[in-house]
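FORM 12-B: Structure-to-Sequence Request
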């Protein structure tokens, strides 16, 4: 128990830094500190990326819904009855006579034999 108290006092007072063992291990301790900082920074970076991905996923769902609504509106507006209603204000009426096929008869050209 006394050894633990003595070690704790040495750490608090800073006396442990003057020992030869501590100075020998100082580069390793600095390396571990650097790794800890990199680990923490990586965690923050990953959280930021996840937040951005969630935001973009929400925007994508919103844009997909808008696309479906716009496509539905376009299909409705391009129906024959809707086109007829919208062109009626310009005086264009829907034809009630079905279209007829025009067939053009051409004479077969004579073949020349030389």
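FORM 12-B RESPONSE
SEQUENCE OUT:
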């Amino acid at each position: 128990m006394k050894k633990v108290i003595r070690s704790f006092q040495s750490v608090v007072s800073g006396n442990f830094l003057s020992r030869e063992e501590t100075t020998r291990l100082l580069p390793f301790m600095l390396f571990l500190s650097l790794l800890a900082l990199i680990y923490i920074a990586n965690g923050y970076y990953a959280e930021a990326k996840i937040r951005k991905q969630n935001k973009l996923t929400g925007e994508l769902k919103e844009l997909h819904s808008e696309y479906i609504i716009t496509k539905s509106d376009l299909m409705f507006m391009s129906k024959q009855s809707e086109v007829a209603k919208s062109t009626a204000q310009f005086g264009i009426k829907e034809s009630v006579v079905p279209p007829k096929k025009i067939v053009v008869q051409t004479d077969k050209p004579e073949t020349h034999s030389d």
